Write the structure tokens for this entry.
Amino acid sequence: MSEEELEALCGELRDFLITHVARTGGHLASNLGVVELTLALHRVFNTPHDSLVWDVGHQCYTHKIITGRRDRFSTLRQPGGLSGFPKPLESPYDVFVTGHSTTSISAAYAIACANKLKGSDDYAVAVIGDGAFTGGMAYEALNNAGRSKTNLVIVLNHNSMSISKNVGAFARYLAVIRSKPSYLRLKEWTENALDHIPVLGERMKEALRSSKSLLKFILYHSTFFEELGFAYFGPVDGHDLPALEQVLTRAKALHRPAFVYVETTKGKGYEYAEKNPAVYHGISRFDVETGNPDVSLEDSFSAVFGQELCELAEKDSRICAITAAMKAGTGLTEFSGKFRNRFFDVGIAEQHAVTFAAGLASQKLLPVVAIYSTFLQRAYDQILHDAAISRLHIVLAVDRAGLVGDDGETHQGIYDVAFLGTIPGVTVYSPATNRELKAQLEKALYRTDGVVAIRYPKGSDAGEEEFGSDPAADWVFEQNGGRIAAVSYGRISNSLRRAIQNIRRPVDFLKLNRIFPLEDALVQQLMEYQRIIFFEETESAGSVAERLCFQLSVKGFSGRFQAVTLPDAFISQGKVPELLKKYKLDQASMEFILREEEAETCQK
Amino acid sequence: MSEEELEALCGELRDFLITHVARTGGHLASNLGVVELTLALHRVFNTPHDSLVWDVGHQCYTHKIITGRRDRFSTLRQPGGLSGFPKPLESPYDVFVTGHSTTSISAAYAIACANKLKGSDDYAVAVIGDGAFTGGMAYEALNNAGRSKTNLVIVLNHNSMSISKNVGAFARYLAVIRSKPSYLRLKEWTENALDHIPVLGERMKEALRSSKSLLKFILYHSTFFEELGFAYFGPVDGHDLPALEQVLTRAKALHRPAFVYVETTKGKGYEYAEKNPAVYHGISRFDVETGNPDVSLEDSFSAVFGQELCELAEKDSRICAITAAMKAGTGLTEFSGKFRNRFFDVGIAEQHAVTFAAGLASQKLLPVVAIYSTFLQRAYDQILHDAAISRLHIVLAVDRAGLVGDDGETHQGIYDVAFLGTIPGVTVYSPATNRELKAQLEKALYRTDGVVAIRYPKGSDAGEEEFGSDPAADWVFEQNGGRIAAVSYGRISNSLRRAIQNIRRPVDFLKLNRIFPLEDALVQQLMEYQRIIFFEETESAGSVAERLCFQLSVKGFSGRFQAVTLPDAFISQGKVPELLKKYKLDQASMEFILREEEAETCQK
């Protein structure tokens, strides 16, 4: 293809992306930014023999379109459709599942090592953004890969705009090396000059390379990446396709680890997205002409959390808020403006976020760490070792807890109940309504000690009436003299209560607000029932149902215990209501199950 | 104190350390290395107002001795005695619990922020080794702390010798900047020269600092740490007390983040330890004169694992071994020598280790990752997201699973059963003997798919006879027609079988080899029993007992279920046999409990 044809192709790809994401929702800004980069990678490298690993793979749309999935692109993020992330089961061009950040260098380096062990000359390429570089795993992998003799290329996609505006010293360092083309030019100039002096020039180059001279320091150690053993190229304009191809070709020719610094513009080619890349990072359906998304997040649980935390922080100067690069997503934008000194965006660094919070707590401050359930998985050890062992009082605001829908397997918040429940001394609240979220946040901060988590789902309060008079009570028990107790917590409690009302049979309704630990008095109360049925939006392993069942059993419970939970499996993308229905956690399924249970109890 | 008196004090402290650790066991080499550094820190900083955070706190012995705990030092690591790690409950001079690596910068930076928020001028100091710098959290924290306006000093204790020999590009980088005193001297020389030119000199210094010139690059950006915003000092001889005090005083005077590079010799002052620092890293009791430890680790589970893996790797070139800076501890020394290309020591980087293994597995190699149970906690997300979602076949060799004894709370391997059990599709084997370990490792590699863990305790096979004829069977059921089934797995299975033999009553004995998942046929077999009693060396939350109880209950089990496990708590240091006795997991307690159960069953 000619240069003009390629340019036209990029334009077509952008139009295609905008039109389709407007219909399906998805990650837009990052994908618009890497259209040329994706084409260049596929033109220079021989995929799928060479492996492309996309970090936090939501930037893989163009890659999917040009590797045979254009026709199915309208199914993106739909039930049974294309995944929004790389998925090896979908295509041999998708090498590694990447939904969480900062894993690409580890995976690509491993693939490069495997190629070498097999005697293959194939390449492995990691494409990683500057945001992902705030995660520690990048350094763990760079440290290993740097001086290896492998066919590895790391492409840094610098768009100065990860999900939240990128903060920290490393981002500034990147800005500094970006502004230093002079050294690179100097280096290139010297090498070129020496290239033109036959024999002697080559020797001088060698001498320079092996010397410890100051000149060498200037010429050959211009960046941290070079110090770590990578050949360094850049910065390159990420929207200049010929330049990209040229640099990638040179990097590939070296047959040793290379680091290519590419500058792109997030949202490139769609005015609204260029102006507001954060808004178009992950977006629902929107109107292409106006750029307006068709849902508002104003009354989401995240927003309510953020507002309430501001109100509490107004009165208490000990309250600090910490986020791992998700300021807007976790509802902390207002807090960050109002309490600048007490707001800490640590980058995509969940481990550091939790240990940092533990450090603040050791000084009697009141840290609240807001992280999505799925990303909190990365801080398991820090919660246990750095906070819980010392009973430090930190509050984990676990956003997107439960099924999340379109993002699928890699982002479901259905493991936090299980993994938090394995950490001694942790208290977990699981509110179902805005009012409960506020009251339980206050309780977590002031009337609970040690590590406290408060978990709430993506989306908003269903506008239900309240459970009980005290939204911070550990549980609400609505007893109608039934022989069956139906138990639940979180957002599906609404469906359960309605189901019980609808079937008009004597079934007692227990709604938990605090799910760990379960109070002995409550377990004792449940001993009286003939049947207990637990509806729970979490995997079965490590569920509250499992814990409760065990506590009842060792006390000698003689009734029947049933649990309806999600399976112990990875759950694919789909709309949340449909997934709840599939796993019998919707109101209609609950009614059916309760009727059956009730009928069986009566027969006895 | 005069310089001579201080030197004498250092000698005394070293003698004291050697004598005491020879009796109690503990970490010796690292402590001998930081005697002067500890004194210098305490002389320059005003502890406990200023906070000292020791990374992987096992180097805190001198710190403990000089902060009022000299008299109790003979109780180190003994039940009820001093902890081998910093412990705030023990002393106000211990600011933060640090048993796992690479947390100190996060914690110290948080303390520095807290001081600033409170308007205090107090300092926070992190002391971190070059080994810990292979962990990603260090960068996450540096990235945040670098350009902050806080009273923070980071001391890099470079002893070129973390637990395993330090590998990777960053270690080489440290060696490079260590060998570059010329630039530092040049910088100092220039500044000094300018200092002697009144008025104009100051202006020139300012101009230099704010310029973007090449000269500035040479003078002011000599290290990565300076690029990240730290004032950089070093390298300093870590055994030269006056020099240390001078540099720390200068760093403190700046009132902004400073990075001090200190060089020490591990094992300093004890010949055997200087020559073999890895042996004296963590050591049991030893003879001071000969340096000989009084236990041999030759037949430990770790050693057996290493030997077996070598035998398998001899026949199968796909097998790779990965360790996170614990080559000797995990028994992989022989493997690393024999199969250099297939051995990967990734540094103290458990996250990267697991994702790297997943990457190898994606290329159909057979990676085995050997990590201690307590450290594997840090790779929870990587196991789940990078390996299990894609059903990549990796083998986790989980060493030090169960109670570990003297290291206490921070190192107990009593959570892996629980957290591995929450990850969908993970298979877990738990051998009790050498023969089982070998057979189950083979089964994990060749007859199991997806993520497989094989967990084994610290120490060695008790030399028991074998359970059943097939050491790789998923379970062994010795049925004597009893109405009680007693269940266990791992090393305490030995005690349970002996207990059953001793009481001479009809109790059936079920030993599990595969603890997750539990096969339905087995659960079905257990439905027949009147009583089931489960003995388990893990926390109760997330235990196999809990899972089994739930599976039985939902099937309608009508018998009685009891479980004897460790409590859901952090368990302090103590000898393993004593701890097992305390929690009723020793043979005598088992006999007592079984007799009682049996008597109750007969009465019915």
Notes: Chain B has four domains: 3-176+228-271, 181-221, 301-455, 475-603. Chain B touches chain A through 112 residues (CB under 8 Å). Residues 36 and 239 of chain B are 6 Å apart (CA to CA). The longest strand of chain B covers residues 531-539.
